[in-house]
Amino acid sequence: MEMERSSSKLNTEYRFVLKDILERMNSLTDEASTVEEEMSRMAENNRYVKLLMTIPGINLFSLCNSVADR
Questions:
Q1: In Å, how far are 19, 35, 44, 50 from 23, measured between CA atoms?
Q2: 3-state secondary structure at position 69
């Protein structure tokens, strides 16, 4: 992997920080996927979200946020 070859040129401190950042990014990506799946599941059962999704340019995230505020 290109990252592994590049990281061998980094000193120990930079390698530690980079590894931590990459682990956090992976964790956040996984959490975001989980949230997106849950939002989709919740939207399937909401008639208002289904109706509003027919409007061009409207996405699931903005709709779930709007519906949650009510």
A1: 6, 18, 32, 36
A2: coil
